[in-house]
Write a structure and sequence with these properties.
alpha+beta, 6-stranded mixed sheet, 35% strand, Cyclase_SnoaL-like, aminoacyl-trna synthetase, ligase, aminoacyl-tRNA ligase activity
Length: 150
């Protein structure tokens, strides 16, 4: 049977405190994402940061969001599930926006879109060092191409 003495209680308390710090960090980050504050977002990344196993500079990471936000000015991420364990954060996000600018060659339709995103972050010293990300962009394209619906 596992030792439930003071060392175990101390380790559990430390894990809870670390998880709370990571949760708070991510909630702050998502606020900057939803405000489309790219400069503030960059402060959360190491340099370089690995995105899907490839090193990127923080400015390259935020640059990928600019065309998306230009096409969907109200693009927002909503946390559906957040799990934190051993320096990793796993997220399931709901993403919404209104198609008001050109996106992947498609002119604005005014259609509201919703899709899912799954992201795994690795943290070290209060910064994201690695990100593995999957978002259903095909679903977004299908929604904005739909004829006769808004």
């Amino acid at each position: 049977m596992a030792n439930q003495g003071p060392a175990s209680a101390s380790t559990a308390a430390q894990t809870i405190a670390t998880n709370d710090e990571h949760r708070s960090l991510y909630l702050s980050y998502i606020e900057h994402c939803n405000a489309h504050n790219f400069n503030a977002m960059e402060a959360f990344y190491t340099s370089p940061i690995n995105i899907n196993d490839k090193p990127w500079s923080p400015s390259e990471v935020t640059a990928q969001f600019k065309p998306l936000v230009a096409a969907f000015p109200d693009w927002q991420w909503t946390i559906r599930h957040l799990t934190i364990e051993n320096g990793y954060m796993a997220l399931h996000l709901s993403v919404t926006g209104t198609h008001q600018g050109e996106f992947q060659g498609i002119q604005p339709t005014g259609r509201r879109v919703t899709t899912s995103q799954f992201t795994l972050y690795r943290l070290r010293d209060g910064k994201f060092t690695d990100v593995w990300d999957l978002i259903d962009i095909n679903s977004v394209v299908d929604q904005i191409k739909q004829v006769g619906s808004k």
